[in-house]
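Bit of a strange request maybe. I'm writing a small parser for C-alpha cell strings and I need a real example to test against, not something I typed by hand. Could someone generate the C-alpha cells for this chain?
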Amino acid sequence: MKITAALLMVLVLFLPNTYPQDYTQMSLPEGAVARLGKGIVKGVLYSPDGARLAVRTYMGIWLYDTTNYRTIALLIGDTGHYNSIAFGADGKTLASGSWNNTVRLWDTETGEQKGTLTGQMLDIVDLVFSRDDATLTGVSRDNHLMLWDTKAGEMKGLIAGDRGRIREAAFSPDGTTVACVHSDRTVRLWNAVTGEQKRTLTGHAEEVFSIAFSSDGRTVASGAGDGTARLWDVKMGELKQILTGHIEMSYSVAFSSDGKTLAGGRLDGTILLWKVH
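Reply from user aminoacidic:
Good idea to test on real output. This should exercise your parser:
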C-alpha cells in the first residue's frame, strides 16, 4: 500500500505527543525553550515485531510505541539529517545513517544511543542488518559498501565502489553473503565476512535497481530498468529464469516468506506477482 505525502504529514503532526514527555521539550539545543512542529517527513519504518514506528524527518527521527502511538523519543545525535534507517531483526536496535558520515545505533525501548560506527564513507544512503543482527552493511553516496561488526562496533570489511553506483544491498538469510546492485547493470555477490567478491551476475540490458534473496538463500532476484526481473542461482552464479509481464521498469522486487512468489513493482503503481517455479 502506498502512503501519500499528505498522509505522512498527518501521521507526524497528529500522533499523540505526551509519552514519556511533551515532545516540544525533547532534545532541545542549548538556549531553546520549546519546539514547534515535528519536521517534514522523509520516511517511515516499522520494526519487525510491529512494536515501534520510526519516522524520519528533517528534524530527526521520531520513535513511537505502536500500542498507543505515543512518542518514545526524538533521536538527533549531532545532526537531524538522516538519509536512512534500519531496524535490527529483534526490533530492539535502530541504525541511522546521516549526512555527517556517521552511523548511529539506538535503543528502541529507551531512545538512548548505544554506539557510533564510522569508516570510509560519504553520506549513508542505505542500511541493512543481517538476520542475526551481527553485521550491519551501509551503502554510501561515494559508492562504497561498509560491513560493521555491531557487537564490537568496528568495521570488518570495505567494498570499493569502482563498478558504478551501488543502489541497494541485501543480506542472504544466513548472513554469509551480501548482494549489491550496481549502475553498470550488474549484480555482485560478496563474502560478508571477508569482503571478497564471490560472483558477478550479468545480463540486464539496463541499470539494476533492486535485489532480494529467497528465504532459503539459494536464489536472488534482481529488478532492472529493462523491464525484467531475473532469478539467479546464488551458488553457481547462473541465470535461472527471466520474468516479464509488459513491465516498463521493474523498480523493486520482494520474495514471499515461503519463497514461492515474487512481487515486482512498476513505476506506474502496478505490482506484478509471479509464481517462482
